[in-house]
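This is your field. Have a critical look at both lines of this record:
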Amino acid sequence: MFALALGAGAELRPLNPWHAEEFLGNLDRAREHIAPWVSPSFVAPDLDRARHVLQRYADRWARDDGGIWGIWSGGTLVGGVLLVSLDAASGVCEAGCWLEPAAEGRGLVTRAVERLIDWVLVERGLHRVEWRTNAGNVRSIAVARRLGMRRDGVLRDALPGPQGRIDLEVWSVLAPEWQARRAGSDEPR
């Protein structure tokens, strides 16, 4: 098993179907906070559905078209990052995240997504990472900005929502931009 340090006692690790109980506990702590921003199919209401969500991403990992990793802080699963999609042939993937409220404000998501982007663009050799978010999700948009992503545009009324249709903002970073960002950084990676 691998774990990547995120600082302050937090780490990024694979999130597998056998973590379903931990995942459900994390979702229970985060449910109201993340429900407006993530797909309803992700916010599992019970252990069987939690296991199903994690199995779906394990299957995607096996097919090389997605994946999911957890963020543990002090030994507790507090959130995670995922590849919603990955198309190696086109060189494009979509990244996403979730985090419970108690873990916010510590840079965990930003550092975890940085490591994910490094892997996708540098090691895997993809060309583009997309970040799609509800236009009203200011925290998610702030992550995209901190990662040096550019706002590509808005998909108006793209998805149904509880109060009507919602707009999706599309942000992205390209491999040459990421390489330049890494080259200009004094931080170790």
